Amino acid sequence: MRRSDFLAFLLLAGCAPKMGNPASLITQERVIGVRAEPAEAAPGDLVKYSSLVVSPSGTVEAPDLSWSLCNLRKPVAENTPVSQACLTDDLAQSAQGVSASIQTPSSACSNFGPLAPPSSSGTLRPSDPDATGGYYQPLRLDLGAEQVIFRERLSCGLAGASLVMAQEFRARYTANQNPTLVSLSGLVGETPASLGSLPASQRIRLVATWSPESAESYPVFDSASQTLADRREALWLSWFATAGSFDDSVTGRGEDDSAVLTENPWQSPAEAGVVLLWLVLHDSRGGADFASYTLTVVP
User: Fold this and answer.
1) pLDDT by residue (tens digit) across 155-204?
2) What does the pLDDT look like over 142-156, one tens digit per residue?
3) Is the Cβ–Cβ distance between 291 and 279 less than 8 Å?
4) pTM (2 d.p.)
5) What is the Cβ-side half-sphere exposure of residue 31, based on CA atoms within 13 angstroms?
6) What are phi and psi of 88, to 5 degrees?
7) Beta strands at 191-193 and 93-96: parallel, antiparallel or unpaired
């Protein structure tokens, strides 16, 4: 299972949970998901971004959230998904609120893609694609003193490909689409359990499903052999809740696994009451979907 975008989200997020708490436990207001439409954009495209901001009392509908494009290239010496300056520098705010419409910079494929940007000392080295052949435009989300980096997948074409290969790639490649969450169900042992009536202090098997179309196939270009190899997206799910504990904060399916579900055992709290739960689904080309659920724990 490829988790580069999820790991980038966690490693560069200032809103990580407090020390000692698992990443899945919601104890403070946090940005836990970002979805872009379209999920893959060309320079100049207008992208609609939606965020999922949550707190122990529920989804935050009107967070004090700002959005800023970061156009700073990552230095070669930095072993991080994006430049650390995207977090430390003052960036020009592009939008405010739970959602934002932001135009992809015309220079995005020069800054972060296969088109080498000019510089005062000559031409800089172009960026390398990730394992899926992708390039990404970073955005920073500021929620109070906390910061999160999201990366929008760019449509930049191929680097080092012959004209024939570039034409074949365009004919075979379909821009990434966001995956789609379908359902969440519960089991106690092998017995189905209603999310509205879950027993306290029990190990509940929570099963999340997504649409079969969520894991898309796509070609990846190998510049050394000048060939295209077909790949299939991996899918992984981030789990969040206001109480109880999951076996894993992230579960999912690798690119060779065609199953459309993932299971995560959840230990329900000892006390009866309402527990809020959120799921954030990711695909390996940067797409995302999210959903919220209410669990009722009974004695």
Assistant:
1) 998 888 899 999 999 999 999 999 999 999 999 999 999 999 999 999 99
2) 999 899 999 999 999
3) yes
4) 0.91
5) 32
6) -95, -25
7) unpaired
Amino acid in position 101? S
CATH of the domain spanning 4-298 = 2.60.40.150
Structure tokens of 126? 């172009």
How is residue 283 written in tokens?
């695909």
Dig out the tokens for 47 from the structure.
């992208």
Torsion angle of alpha carbons 128, 131, 132, 135, nearest 10°?
Answer: -30
- Rounded to the nearest 5°, which phi and psi values hold at 267? -85, 115
Indicate the helix (H) or strand (E) that contains 9.
helix 4-11
The domain locations on the chain are: 4-298
> Which of 150, 73, 151 has its CA nearest to residue 116?
73
Which residues partner with 208 through β-bridges? 184, 262
CB contact at 8 A, 148 and 95: no
Is residue 284 a contact partner of residue 132, using CB atoms and an 8 Å limit? yes
Q: CA-to-CA distance for 113 and 165, rounded, in angstroms?
A: 18
Q: Supply the DSSP symbol for 165.
A: H
Q: The tokens of 272 are what?
A: 């009866």
Place of tokens 């821009």: 175
Comparing CA positions, the residue from 19, 50, 15 lying closest to residue 148 is 15
| Closest to 2 in 3D by CA, of 261, 289, 252 | 252
